[in-house]
Amino acid sequence: MNIEFSNIPTLLVIAGSTAVGKTDFAVKLAKQYKTAIISADSRQFYKEMVIGTAPPTVEDKQAVPHYFVGNLSIFDYYSVSRFELDVLDLLPQLFEKNKVVIMTGGSGLYIDAVCYGIDNLPDPDMDIRKHVIEIYEKEGIEALRLRLKYLDPLFYENTDIANPKRLIKALEVSLQTGLTYSSFLTKIKKTRHFAIKKYCLTRPREELFLRINTRVDKMIEQGLLAEAVSLFPYKHLNALNTVGYKELFDYLEGKLSLEQAIEDIKTHTRRYAKRQMTWFKRDTSYIEIPLS
Questions:
Q1: What pLDDT band is residue 186 in, cutting at 50, 70 and 90?
Q2: Does 127 or 188 have the greater pLDDT score?
Q3: What pLDDT is attached to residue 182?
Q4: Which long-range contacts (CB under 8 A, 24 or more apart) does 167-175 make?
Q5: Residue 51 in contact with residue 219, Cβ under 8 Å?
Q6: What's the average model confidence in pLDDT over 77-103?
Q7: Whole-model pTM?
Q8: Which CATH architecture has domain 126-184?
Q9: Which runs of consecutive H residues, i.e. helices, occur in the chain?
Q10: Cα separation, 239 vs 60, whole angstroms
């Protein structure tokens, strides 16, 4: 892949759904341009979650410098706004070595934070977060929807009400500040002192779904269940509210058979991939790169 660059430092974004092949593509590109990779996969940050997040291999990390992979613990508080600041702090150092830096991942919100900026939200009150999560665990997602519709009807009408993480975050902020979550979302793009080129990798749906199913089977063979067992005592942590772990936690609690848990991981991962592609397609600045 040959890309024309000016003398302006350039952030090269390689996005796409889970299992589409972002890591291999980004590593090859980084070798070509002799540069580093910033991960924008919000679950690859956590060092305890190795098998279930499909991070770059040891060989990949030896071949190309990687940042924001295994740099946090599941016990650490982290947020998209901190990711924005951390990446913006790192980029000038990387641009001193190379005018091109690659950022790759499937977490669209984290990519957008670096490219466009994110609204300044208050740090969470952990007691309020615990309270909202308890509501979700005891009463289900409909209880979150009803509360959000009352506290912030504008955000309720314009968000994905099937996404509990998004509902929990909105309720946290509303309860903590007494203001609506939507009042914090100014959507004012921030100025960046570097160029940005954005590419989105795609595959035919049937091929992508086959890759997802195959990868899940491989994760199970590599020991994903044992990893889930080791993390089970901490399943309440936000980092572990993740496809691949949640289903195995349900198995460990006797709610599902192992076979059903594995099938659910595949199903939920395919649904997640669809949501990712919907997110990236909304941004017309992406150039699609079909893979097959």
A1: low
A2: 127
A3: 84
A4: 167/136, 167/141, 168/129, 168/132, 168/133, 168/136, 168/144, 171/132, 171/144, 171/147, 172/124, 172/125, 172/128, 172/129, 172/132, 173/121, 173/122, 174/148, 175/128, 175/131, 175/132, 175/151
A5: yes
A6: 94
A7: 0.82
A8: Orthogonal Bundle (1.10)
A9: 22-33, 58-63, 80-97, 108-116, 126-139, 141-151, 153-157, 164-177, 205-222, 224-231, 246-252, 258-281
A10: 24
Domain limits of the chain?
10-119+188-203+277-290, 126-184, 217-273
CATH value of 217-273 in 3.30.1490.20, 1.10.10.10, 1.10.3720.10, 1.10.287.890: 1.10.287.890
- Using one digit for the tens of pLDDT, what is the confidence trace for 193-242? 999 999 999 999 999 999 999 999 999 999 999 999 999 999 988 889 89
Instruction: Report the CATH superfamily, name and number, of domain 10-119+188-203+277-290.
Output: P-loop containing nucleotide triphosphate hydrolases (3.40.50.300)
Matching fold, domains 10-119+188-203+277-290 and 126-184: no
Work out the mean pLDDT of the chain and round it to a whole number.
93
Please state, in angstroms and rounded to a whole number, the distance separating the CA atoms of residues 60 and 104.
Answer: 14
Q: What is the pLDDT of residues 107-140, one digit of tens each?
A: 998 999 999 987 777 777 888 888 999 999 999 9
Q: Report helix, strand or coil for 106.
A: coil
Burial group, residue 10, by CB count within 10 angstroms (0-12, 13-18, 19+):
buried
